[in-house]
Amino acid sequence: MPVASNSRYAQAARYDAPDAQGRMQAAVGLRLAAPPPLSPEELGLQRRHLLTGREDLPALAVRYVGDPSAWWRIADMNPRVFPLDFDTGSILVIPSTADAGRVERSRTL
User: Fold this and answer.
1) pLDDT at position 22, please?
2) pLDDT for residue 70
3) Which residues of the chain form CATH 3.10.350?
4) CA distance 57 to 6
5) According to the model, what pLDDT value does residue 101 have?
6) Cα distances (Å, whole numbers) of residue 75 to 57, 60, 78
7) I need a surface site. Which of 7, 51, 66, 83 has the fewest CB within 10 A?
8) For the range 64-67, what are the long-range contacts, defined as Cβ-Cβ under 8 Å and sequence gap of 24 or more?
9) Domain topology for 35-94
10) What does the pLDDT look like over 44-99, one tens digit per residue?
11) What pLDDT is recorded for position 31?
């Protein structure tokens, strides 16, 4: 399976592994290491979100990043819990992007 350049597995090592029939297939190693620490600039851009009700990471990813499949970016920035069972009242660190909140006008009035 090809790995997209924006996938959380884009930098993971690739291996050949046997499938159920014994044929060798390309595989991606697990990402077990923590992400690299944030730079001072990135630390200054962090946002926090207080979980209320039945919010989940994909919904927060839509709200803050604009893509539900980017939920793992929020998970990476917070303490690891299994199975992503953050409780109501938890405060999550939200990653920011350079374009977050930016308005770009493409025409003059």
Assistant:
1) 92
2) 85
3) 35-94
4) 18
5) 47
6) 8, 11, 5
7) 83
8) 64/94, 64/95, 64/96, 64/100, 65/95, 65/97, 65/100
9) Membrane-bound Lytic Murein Transglycosylase D; Chain A (3.10.350)
10) 667 888 988 888 889 998 998 888 888 888 888 887 776 567 888 888 888 876 54
11) 59
Q: What span, in angstroms and rounded, lies between the C-alpha atoms of 50 and 93?
A: 9
Query: What does the DSSP assignment read for the chain?
Result: ----TTSTTTTS-EEEEE-TTS-EEEEE----SPPPPPPHHHHHT-EEEE--TT--HHHHHHHHTS-GGGHHHHHHTS---TTS-PPTT-EEEE---TTTT-----S--
Model confidence pTM above 0.70:
no
Q: Mention every residue, 6+ apart, whose C-beta is less than 8 A from residue 51.
A: 86, 87, 88, 89, 90, 91, 92
